[in-house]
């Protein structure tokens, strides 16, 4: 299950893409359009800036904008940044220690297959597909 953080980050990305502008979009405008708390969006936007999905500027004409074109962003990279790994089980997560039961595990191949399907789905879906 995805958290509000991941879902709201996608809504921010879509909102910024819909503006189709090189201008910075004030966060208060995004918050109003998306009916999301501006305070909560500030936390999300900071993470997205750190993850290099968007860029921010302060001041009178400040706000946020996309770094790339909407078709250059995958939904997967947004969710990955905000939610963490897509791995359905701990042993498939990045940097996971090798499971001592891996050679005997009857379910590992199923989890690997599911993981690949999930990643493929979200990484092949672009922000531009959601506009």
From TrEMBL:
Keywords on record: DNA-binding
Protein name: Putative transcriptional regulator
GO cellular component, one term: cytosol
UniProt keyword Ion transport present: no
Record bears the keyword ATP-binding: no
Origin organism lineage: Bacteria, Bacillati, Bacillota, Clostridia, Eubacteriales
UniProt GO molecular function: DNA binding; DNA-binding transcription factor activity
UniProt cross-references to InterPro entries, sorted A to Z: Tscrpt_reg_Rrf2 (IPR000944), WH-like_DNA-bd_sf (IPR036388), WH_DNA-bd_sf (IPR036390)
Gene3D superfamilies (alphabetical): Winged helix-like DNA-binding domain superfamily/Winged helix DNA-binding domain (1.10.10.10)
Domain of life: Bacteria
């Amino acid at each position: 299950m995805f958290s509000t953080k991941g879902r709201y980050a996608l809504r921010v990305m879509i909102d910024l893409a819909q503006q189709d502008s090189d201008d910075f979009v004030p966060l208060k405008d995004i918050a109003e359009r998306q009916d999301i708390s501006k305070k909560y969006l500030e936390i999300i936007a900071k993470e997205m800036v750190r993850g290099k999905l968007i860029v921010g500027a302060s001041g009178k004409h400040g706000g946020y904008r996309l770094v790339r074109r909407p078709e250059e962003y995958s939904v997967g990279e947004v969710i990955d940044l905000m939610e963490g790994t897509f791995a359905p089980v701990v042993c498939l997560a990045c940097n996971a220690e090798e499971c001592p039961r891996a050679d005997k595990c009857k379910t590992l191949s199923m989890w690997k297959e599911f993981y690949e399907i999930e990643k493929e789905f979200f990484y092949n879906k672009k922000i531009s597909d959601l506009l």
